[in-house]
Write a structure and sequence with these properties.
The chain has about 70 residues and is mainly alpha-helical. It has a domain of about 40 residues. The chain is built from two helices and no strands.
Length: about 70
């Protein structure tokens, strides 16, 4: 076994790993987990106020600058 055989074996292992990873990523049963991961950057942002909210506790407080 020379260096060419080792390089070929290494290439084969990496190719199999790449194909396995691609199949795992694009499988349909992983969709819910990836959908949740896609929204992770926005998880800490506050929700925008809804237009139909009539609760006074949710309305922004307006303060006067007068003494």
């Amino acid at each position: 076994m020379d260096i060419g055989d080792l390089r070929g074996l290494g290439t084969l292992v990496v190719a199999i790993a790449f194909i396995g990873l691609a199949l795992w990523v694009f499988s349909g049963k992983r969709n819910p987990a990836f959908a949740e991961a896609r929204m992770a950057p926005f998880a800490d942002e506050p929700l925008p106020p809804s237009a139909d909210s009539t609760n006074e506790a949710e309305q922004p407080v307006v303060r006067s600058k007068q003494p």
